[in-house]
């Protein structure tokens, strides 16, 4: 299985769609990656489903507790 899956997300700041590579070797992960368009830090939350497809959700940094 390819450990890297490309997916498209919508930036929570500027709304632009950007392509990101998800590392599927981790079952659950959270990390910050700067938007390629507006350069603001997007918080990624990735959960792997049973079929090996990643579920990716994004939010802006200010929503962190
Ligand atoms: Zn952006």
Short description:
With 65 residues, the protein is mainly beta.
What would your notes on this structure say?
The chain has a domain of 40 residues. Helix content is 0%, strand content 55%. Strands 3-4-5 form a 3-stranded antiparallel β-sheet, with no helix packed on it. Strands 1-2 form a two-stranded antiparallel ribbon. The termini are far apart. Bound molecules: zinc ion. Zinc ion (ZN) binds next to loops.
The H-and-E topology, N to C, reads as: EEEEE
Q: Helical stretch count?
A: 0
Shape: globular
Residue stretches low in confidence (pLDDT < 50, at least 5 long) are none
- Major sheet: 3 strands, antiparallel
End-to-end separation: 35 Å
The helix fraction, in percent, is under 10%
Count of extended strands:
5
Radius of gyration: 12 Å
Order of strands, main sheet, comes to 3-4-5
Strand content: over 45%
What binds here, in terms of ligands, is: zinc ion
Which structural class best describes the helix and strand composition? Answer: mainly beta
Mean pLDDT: 91
List the helices and strands and how they pair.
Layout (H helix, E strand, L loop, with lengths): L3 E7 L6 E7 L4 E7 L6 E8 L5 E7 L5
Antiparallel strand pairs: 1-2, 3-4, 4-5
């Amino acid at each position: 299985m390819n450990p890297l899956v490309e997916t498209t997300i919508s930036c929570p700041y500027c709304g632009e769609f950007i392509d990101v590579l998800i590392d599927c070797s981790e079952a659950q992960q959270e990390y910050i990656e700067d938007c390629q368009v507006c350069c603001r830090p997007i918080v990624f939350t990735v959960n792997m489903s049973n079929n090996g497809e990643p579920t990716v959700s994004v939010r802006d940094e200010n929503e962190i507790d």
